[in-house]
Amino acid sequence: MTTPVCTSASDAAVSARQTRPYPSFASYVRARQPVLLRTARSLTANPSDAEDLLQTALAKTYVAWERIEDHRALDGYVRRALLNTRTSQWRKRRVDEFVCDELPEPEPAGGGDDPADRQALHDAMWRAIMKLPARQRAMVVLRYYEDLSEVQTAEVLGVSVGTVKSAVSRALGKLREDPELDVVR
Known about the structure:
The protein is mostly helical. It has helices at 11-17, 25-43, 47-64, 74-93, 115-130, 134-145, 150-157, 161-177.
């Protein structure tokens, strides 16, 4: 016949606590930590992970300490907590990664990592923007360099959102046709 490990606190449980082999959680941990740590190390490859696993399982045991009626079954309770915690960690850490011959990321387009190429592109873009009329230039700079929304750009310039949309559209069309920016395409 098996004895229940966890029950609700009752008068019988209160009187039984006074005769238990471990009067407090701290005394139990002091007495059984080396044995429980060996169990945790058998569940993990890394000693640091085993210590973390044991600490988590002991925290769960501490929460249930008052409900555990038979303190002779504490080791089994903690071992089950160790196993359940390790299983939960394993499931959470599972990542679907597959080995492949080629990296899925595309190669960087245009300019690469050469600082001279980046600077040349930057200069060409600013020369093309400076060719735009002042109003279109202001809208392009606010929209794409300052990263403002169409509504925010309209508020800053005191114009309607439709005006911003149409002016930016015309400005981008002119930038697409600029011969200095053919290198980018």
